[in-house]
Write a structure and sequence with these properties.
By secondary structure, this protein is an alpha+beta fold. The chain has helices spanning about 5-15, 25-35, 40-50, 55-75, 165-170; strands at about 80-90, 90-100, 105-110, 115-120, 125-130, 135-140, 150, 155-160.
Length: about 170
């Protein structure tokens, strides 16, 4: 049995015929890199994960199970989200976008502590912004004329904007 097991593993990976995105391994790596503001804590968690073989098991799970499922079924059960982190001094914003839900989550941190979470996602009549508890903060609705109407949490209109003028109002970025 011990002589057959390596052959079966090689055959399983070989039959999958898929390099794959390794989403679980990427998620683990991104989590480790953004979970702690302190570089020593990040390094300590990384070493702990390396010693306990967490990265090894994540890579094996991706290679043997999840990438194969994506190859044969078309969808990886471990969906990678698009995550960006912006750091200025002791402040950090982590932006996570989930394309399937068209959802953007923004978490703001100060000195590594979570300050606030705002989630933007499609609502009944446009886009809605809500906090981590689901309380609506603001909504945006596009009228037939193309104008965008912003309303506060009580539904009171706080502004109307012409999207064709928006590029002129924003600073140019590269």
């Amino acid at each position: 049995m011990r002589k057959i097991l390596p052959f079966v593993l090689v055959l399983t990976v070989g039959l999958a015929g898929c390099y794959g995105p390794f989403n679980l391994t990427k998620k683990l790596y991104k989590w480790n890199g953004s979970a702690y503001a302190d570089k020593w804590a990040t390094e300590g968690v990384f070493l702990g994960c390396a010693i306990v073989q967490v990265y090894t098991f994540a890579a094996l799970g991706d290679a043997i199970i999840f990438n194969s499922i994506e190859f044969w079924g078309g969808k990886n059960p471990v969906q990678a989200r698009n995550i960006k982190s912006i750091r200025i001094g002791e402040d950090q914003a982590v932006l996570s976008y989930t394309p399937e839900a068209k959802r953007l989550r923004v978490d703001s941190f100060h000195k590594g502590k979570l300050n606030e979470t705002v989630i933007f996602e499609p609502g009944a009549d446009g886009m809605a912004a809500h906090d981590a508890k689901g309380t609506v903060i603001m909504t945006a609705k596009t009228l037939d004329s193309g104008m965008v109407v912003l309303s506060d949490r009580n539904g009171k209109q706080v502004g109307t904007y012409d999207p064709t003028r928006l590029p002129k109002m924003l600073p140019q970025t590269n």
